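Batch job 17 of 40 flagged for manual review because the log was empty.
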Amino acid sequence: RIPEPKPLLLGLVLANLAGVRGNLEDPVDAETLYIEALDFRRERLGKEHEEYGGTLVQIAGFYMGLGKYKEAVPLLEEGINIQKKALGENHPGFAGSLYTFAEFLSLQGQITRAEGFYKKAIAIIEKAYGPEHPAAMAGMAGPRHLGKGLWSALDGSSGNAGTALFPLLFRGEI
């Protein structure tokens, strides 16, 4: 652990480390780190800050990967609402959260509804950066691979890393 005072960057580091631990199949450690990152951001930045909302969305994505959809839903909804208010509906960071929501819908079998959110997220990215930007092109992987989603891309079974890269690009993780 890092001694006090913790720099604000620590919230990002904790969240990213949690993601790594989750990918290494250590969900207990990952969950602990995500909660620590969330608490840190709540204390330092407040519940209305975009990074707090982004951490909620990250935790929701983590729970989705574990199949814990009941736990994911309220976090995902709250995180998206915070980011919508803090960033606005045309911000790439908000697009990343919409993409995560589309992944959730896809995993739940709500393919038509998911496609609408994928398209909205891609439209935001294309408007912000142009259709040839790598993020816009990576985001296109979602609608083509509905039903496989982010989690299969992370373990390599879909053969398309773009699906996994899209949300990470806009959360500052890569």
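Reviewer: the log was empty due to a logging misconfiguration, but the result itself is present. The CA atoms of residues 17 and 38 lie 13 Å apart. Unflagging and moving on to job 18.
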